[in-house]
Design goal:
This protein has helices spanning about 15-25, 65-75, 85-90, 90-110, 130-145; strands at about 5-10, 45-50, 50-55, 80-85, 115-120, 125-130, 150-155, 160-165. It has about 170 residues and is of the alpha+beta class. The protein has one domain (about 10-165). A hairpin with a 2-residue loop joins β2 and β3 (about 50-55). Zinc ion binds near residues 65 and 68. Zinc ion binds near residues 42 and 66.
Length: about 170
């Protein structure tokens, strides 16, 4: 995994297939790592047919942190979204509301898709995520709602997907 860097323009092609490949190599998501009915002690998600899902834990189920809680614990995001621009500054609350709304919709179905942190830095805001599909989806939702400019790039460091939206 060295020297790999790619840029994707969302107006052309989201390249989901490539993202699924990436996910297989994600150490936080290694398949078969947890037996069925494992429960996460932090968020309560359970493993069902090899996938983390919301559900009711069986009594005496094995406990392991789910990949999202493990990332939060290790402070290792899978994706980050940088928000900037004059329009963003003027509509910050409204835009962050859309970001959070997109997250809660995704999280309701997929326990591993969560916001980790929202940080303000100088003239921009950085939102970190536990899942690269989610940061991708949130970027698209912003672009759909407000247009502006959307860019994404994988970095070598831990397969972090960086998405930047600006308007
Ligand atoms: Zn968890």
């Amino acid at each position: 995994m060295t020297g790999r860097k790619k840029s994707t323009d969302y107006s052309h092609q989201p390249r989901r297939d490539r993202m699924d490949e990436e996910r297989v190599s994600d150490p936080y998501r290694a398949r078969g790592k947890w037996p069925d009915s494992t429960v996460c002690p932090d968020c309560g998600a359970i493993v069902h047919h090899g996938h983390w899902t919301w559900g009711v834990a069986a009594p005496g189920a094995e406990q392991h942190l789910c990949p999202a809680c493990q990332r939060i614990h290790d402070r290792v995001p899978a994706g980050q979204l940088t928000l900037s621009g004059k329009f963003f500054t003027e509509h910050r609350e409204e835009i962050l509301h859309l970001v959070r709304h997109a997250e809660s919709k995704a999280r309701a179905e997929h326990p591993l898709e969560r916001i980790m942190d929202v940080k303000d830095e100088d003239d921009h805001t950085v939102v970190t995520f536990t899942d690269s599909h989610l940061v991708h989806g949130v970027g698209e939702a912003l672009h759909h709602a407000y247009h502006g400019e959307l860019k994404s790039q994988y970095t070598d460091e831990g397969d972090l997907l960086r998405v930047a939206w600006s308007r």
